[in-house]
Design brief:
Elements: H1 5-19, H2 31-44, H3 52-61, H4 72-79, H5 81-89, H6 98-110, H7 114-127, H8 137-154, H9 159-171
Helix pairs in contact: 1-2, 1-3, 2-3, 2-7, 3-5, 3-7, 4-5, 6-8, 7-8, 7-9, 8-9
Bound molecules: nickel (II) ion.
Length: about 170
């Protein structure tokens, strides 16, 4: 299993710095906790069939453009084209109407290497924790439908993550 710990550390430091004092909504945890949870969902299914270093980079950086305002060109300079393009695909296009953003992102993720698919699945698995108390039943239902769309679009990339997202959807409240 390929594992470059120095690359992981450099990427984690970059992501932690980019997200700064941002917190995981509703939890009070530093944002980097979310990033590490996503990375370890992917790490858990590492089986030698994908590039683990690349997957870890995409996991740690997946929200750096959408939620921390890092420019894609900055990612390109720091981590190269492949990572910049993967993170771009994982970033919703806020020029589109809100209702179209997830489908558009999923289309772009499907045009990327498998590692990017795994990160999207891992992100939603991580986020399928009990919804914040202030969320309406309608909002929860919408989140669940969206999770199912992610599972349907990307599940074929990894059987273990597909099973895990289905399990999380079934128990989501
Ligand atoms: Ni995320």
């Amino acid at each position: 299993m390929s594992w470059n710990q120095d690359l992981f550390k450099r990427t984690l430091d970059f992501a932690a710095k980019a997200h700064g004092t941002q917190q995981v909504p509703g939890s009070g945890f530093p944002y980097v906790v979310h990033l590490v949870k996503v990375a370890t969902e992917v790490l858990r299914v590492a089986d030698g069939t994908f590039d683990l270093d690349f997957a870890m980079q995409c996991a740690l950086l997946h929200d750096s453009v959408e939620d921390a305002g890092v420019a894609v060109v900055t990612l390109r300079q720091a981590f190269g084209d492949r990572v910049a393009e993967g993170v771009s695909a994982l970033t919703k296009d806020d020029a589109l109407p809100k209702a179209e953003r997830m489908a558009d992102s999923l289309r772009r993720v499907r045009g990327q290497p498998k590692e990017v698919w795994l990160v999207k699945l891992a992100d939603r698995i991580t986020n399928l924790e009990p919804a914040p108390a202030h969320w309406s039943a309608e909002k929860r239902a919408g989140y669940r439908v969206e999770a199912q769309a992610i599972a349907d679009a990307l599940g074929e990339s990894n059987a273990a993550l597909a099973a895990r997202i289905r399990e999380k959807i079934a128990s989501y409240t």
